[in-house]
Amino acid sequence: MIIGITGGSGSGKSTLSRELAKRGFTVIDADKEYHHLQENDLELRQELIDNFGTAERAQLRNIVFADKEKASLLREVTYKHITKAIDKKLALGGDIVLDASGLFESGYDAKCDKTIAVLANREVRINRLLLRDGLTRQAILSRLQAQPSDEFYTKSADIIVNNNGNGFNIDSILGKLNQKIAIYGGTFSPPTLGHLDVIKRAVALYDKLYVVVLKNPTKDPIFTEEERLNMLKKITEDLPNVEVERYDGLLAEYAKEKGANFSVRGLRDQFDLKSEHEMYQLNAQIAKEEFEFSLDTNFSPTTLENFYTSSSMVRELFKSGSYKVASKYVDARIYDDIFNKYRAINLEKNNAQSSAAISRIAPQTP
Q1: Which of 176, 195, 256, 315 is labelled catalytic?
Q2: Catalytic residue among 189, 263, 300, 311, which?
Q3: Number of folded domains in the chain?
Q4: Do 147 and 198 fall within a single domain?
Q5: Is residue 123 assigned to a domain?
Q6: Is 219 an annotated catalytic residue?
């Protein structure tokens, strides 16, 4: 397993790396690799001089910590050199920690199975840097200003670890790293007992399940995205390891963001099997070639009770007014949401028909 660890100055990412080293991980420190190359690689030194006027570490630090564009240029100049050195060490295999301050900006995260961002409150970081580096407060503030925000790390990393002085719970962190995470994507218009059955069975297999409302350009859902989200949240409220979200992009892209290596799908018959197998192959290919990770699919055959259950059937039952029959295929917690939606639709339709009928029989104005 390759774990990428990152964080801003004073967050404590290197401390976490050392703690994981005690648990048997080999630590590759990208900063140390860079410093070694900076002193010994003549080609790199010349490129640094050409771009920054110096190859000396202290001078470069002052330049890039105060200028985000210069920091980006430094990563660009050094990337190919550092990557070559890191790749040699990664090729040795085993459990590895890749400690890199620019993990996401440089693209190193693509080499990792999981990524961790270590965060700490601003004042905590400032005090640590005052003690560690002997810099002035203003110099530290300039350095922090040039670094990514907590929001950036929260959005980018698989795992967030807060380090405000209480130390690291390594067992908890290792537990999160070994989590089996899955996603269950669909339109869910509306959610049915068939969907809920797939969710409950997946919960027993995975440590974390993301149920995600995806946009399907081939479908025109009766229910708004917000309505579907709310219904899914209601029927999964008693399942603590389930999160309901929405996503507009590719399923594989969402899985990569969440650190999920499994997709869950329900199967009713041979027709489902054909279409779902095609989607499995496509998602696996996109994950591998576009996002550089593996995405497998767990097919969950339907139970006999839900063999004929589908969102389209439920919509037709409510549309025709067969509410008693329809209630057998949806969770009681969302029955009223669906009933009220179709009552409003049917009422609007009846009013429109009545208006049209009246207009046909109304006397024409001479």
Answers
A1: 195
A2: 311
A3: 2
A4: no
A5: yes
A6: yes
How many angstroms separate the first and last alpha carbons of the chain?
Answer: 85
Same domain, 16 and 162: yes
Task: Among 161, 176, 191, give the residue marking a domain's end.
Answer: 176
Measure the CA–CA gap between 149 and 185, rounded to whole angstroms: 30
pLDDT in tens, the chain (366 residues): 899 999 998 899 999 999 999 989 999 998 888 888 888 888 888 888 888 888 887 788 777 776 778 877 887 788 888 888 888 898 888 899 999 988 898 888 888 888 999 999 999 999 999 988 888 888 888 888 878 898 999 888 888 888 987 788 888 888 778 888 999 999 999 999 999 999 999 999 998 999 999 987 777 678 999 999 999 999 999 998 999 999 998 999 898 888 888 999 998 888 888 888 899 999 999 988 888 788 999 999 888 888 889 999 999 999 988 999 999 999 999 999 999 999 888 777 766 655 555 555 555 555
Last residue of a domain, one of 124, 155, 176: 176
Total-model pTM: 0.60
If DSSP codes are grouped into helix, strand and coil, which group holds residue 117? Answer: strand
Which position among 88, 122, 180, 219 bears the catalytic label?
Answer: 219
CATH code at position 190: 3.40.50.620
Name the residue with tokens 């063999």.
307
Does residue 77 sit in the same domain as residue 119? yes
Q: What is the rounded distance in angstroms from the CA atom of residue 52 to the CA atom of residue 288?
A: 37
User: Is the separation of the CB atoms in 21 and 99 below 8 Å?
Assistant: no
Which among 246, 268, 277, 343 is annotated as catalytic?
A: 268
- CA-nearest of 93, 78, 91 to 30 is 78
Catalytic site residue 156? no
Range of the domain at 276: 179-312
Domain harbouring 123, CATH code: 3.40.50.300
Strand order of the β-sheet with 208-214 is: 242-247, 208-214, 181-186, 262-267, 296-301
User: Active-site residue 311, yes or no?
Assistant: yes
| Residue 81 sits in the same domain as residue 188 | no
Residues 160 and 257 in one domain: no
